[in-house]
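Hi Y.,

Following your request, here is the sequence exactly as I used it, all 272 residues.
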Amino acid sequence: MSHKQDKSSMLSQGVFIFVYLAVLTLIEFGVALTFNSTILLIVVALVKAVLVVYYYMHVYQLNTDHEHESDENSYEYKTGTNRIGLWLFLISDSFVFGGLLVMRLNLLGLRHPHLNQTLGLFVTAVLLISSFFMNRGETLMKNGDRQGFLKNTVITFILGLGFLLGVVIIEWRAIPMIAEPILHFFGEPEGLEPLKPSSGPDGAAFFMMTGMHAFHVLTGLILLAIVWINGRKGLYDEKHYPVEAAAVYWHFVDVVWIFFYPALYLVGAIFR
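Below is the corresponding structure, written out as tokens. Let me know if you'd prefer a different format.
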């Protein structure tokens, strides 16, 4: 199957995939709100993950034949081996997150910690939007639009930082004087006991899962900063695989949250 597309088609495809992801996220929230079906939540999460892995992470490129694949000194050959190496790393990293999901199931069963649902949906939307702009930036760089890449990477960085701060500062209540007014804005009742790492199984599961994910978001932000700086210097005008690698890693962080979000916020009745 050929996956070659022109710039306009690639950008349009990115928009369509984002719309699908947004609609599926709303369906996911609606399922938790009404049917309270864990099976449906799993199905929706799997569909979202497949869309991101295939269309945003370009997993099909692992099977791409290159004209110079036998020449070990060619850029195409090196790109292919680097691509395989990156995916092997992501697969191995997936076992860490899979273990955390098993831990969460073992500790909490089919219920979730008491968390702010509106804030959870908001930060999830922020991360999904960041993936859209990352895909857009990567597409523009592949088509020689350096300025478009730089602008979209900055937007991705800002949204990713917003997600990270939303989890660490607000959801973790790392800075109470900032977190409490924002949580109140998102509908959190006053005087509610905050979730802490010492709050039994709920706290252990929540802080382990969000902590590991936040670490990966932080490393993703560092990668984005590096490719932005190098891209500004014109280092990727001809050879842009580093941009693809940073984008794939960022989308991987999004895929992890696609599963963590329902596991932490939606499994079990939202209103008890």
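The first helix runs from residue 7 to 33.

Thanks again,
Q.
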